[in-house]
Amino acid sequence: MSLCIAYSCTIGGLSTITGTSTNLIFAEHFNNRYPDCHCINFGTWFVLTFPITIIILILSWVWLHWLYLGFDFSSMFRCAKDKSEKEKASAKIIEDEYKQLGSISNQELVTLVIFILMALLWFTRDPGFVPGWSSLFPQYKGYATDSTAALILGLLFFIIPANMPTNSSFGKNNDLSYTTLITWKEFQSCMPWEIALLVGGGFALAQGTEDSGLSAWVGSKLTPLGSLPIWVTIAVSSLIVTSVTEVASNPATITIFLPILSPLAEAIGVNPLYILIPTTLCTSFAFLLPVANPPNAIVFTYGHLQVIDMVKAGLGVNIIGVLAVMLGVRVWGVPLFDLETYPSWAPPHFIANITGP
Fold first, then answer.
1. Tens digit of pLDDT for each residue in 21-65?
2. Which residues, other chains included, contact 163 with Cβ-Cβ below 8 Å and sequence gap of 6+?
3. Rounded distance between C-alpha atoms, residue 92 and residue 209, angstroms
4. Taking the model in full, what pTM does it have?
C-alpha cells in the first residue's frame, strides 16, 4: 500500500505540464529555445501523456501485486466473497477517517471551483483543433499562456474571503475586516523558494551554455550518434536520465540534460521533441531509493519499508515506465507532433560555428 501511494503520486504527475517541476522546466526551456513552436500546451501534453500514465499505472499494479501477493488475481474480482477480519478492520478505519472529515467547507468548495476553472482555462487556451480563448487577444500574442490563467486565478485566493460575511458578523462594533483564503504569511511559509531558485538558475545555465557556444560544441561532439537508429538514441538518453535522477533531484537532472540534448537533436537532424519529451518524462522515474523524490521519502519515514523493498519494486516500475514512454512517443506521439520531420522552427541541423563568439 505504501509503495502504491508513493508511485501513484509520481506517475500521476506525468499527465499535465503542471504536474511535476520537471515538466514545467522542460516547457519553459523549450519555449525559450524554440519560440516559434507553439505545439506544446496543456491540451497536447495531456493527449500524449494520459494514455502513457494509464499504461504505467496498470502495469505497475500488476508488477507490485505479483511481487508481494503472487499471481492470484482471480480472488480480487470474485463477487460476494467473505471478507477477512483484517479487511473488515481496514474498511472500518477508512470509514471512521472519512466521517471525521465532515461535510465540505466553504473554503474547500471555493478552492474546488477555482481549480476546475483553472483546468478548463488550461485546456481551452489553445486546444489545437479549434481556436482557444488566447485567440481573443491577438494584439498580445505570446502573453496569454498557461501561466496567465494560473496567476490570475491564484490571485483570487488573496482576494476571496475565507468566511463569507453574514449579518451577525458585523456586530455592534461594525467590524468589516475579513481573512482571505490565503494570507501572504501563509504563502511565504509554504512556497518552495529553493525550487524557484533552482529552476531560475537552470534557465540561466541554459542561456549561458547557448551564448558561450558550449551547447553548440557539445552538439558537434555528439554528431556520431546520428549514425545510430533514432530509437537507440532515445533509449540511451532515457536510461541515462532515469539512472541519474535516482541520486540527484529531478529538477537538477532535467536542468543539466536539457541544454545538452537540445543541441544533440539539432546536430543529428532529429526533431528536438523526439528526444526531449521521452527524457523529460523519464526524469520523473525516481522509484528506486527513498531519497530519489519526496513521495518515496514520505512513505519511507513511516517505517513499514526497507530500502531493499523499494529497490526491488522500483526497478520493475522504472523499466515499465521507460518502455511505456517509448511506446507512447512512437505510436501516438509521432503523428501528434510530426516527430519524424525536422521542423522549420528549429535551427538548421548543421553547426557553422562551434567555438562561440
1. 888 889 888 988 888 888 888 888 989 999 999 999 999 998 988
2. 106, 169, 178, 179
3. 58
4. 0.77
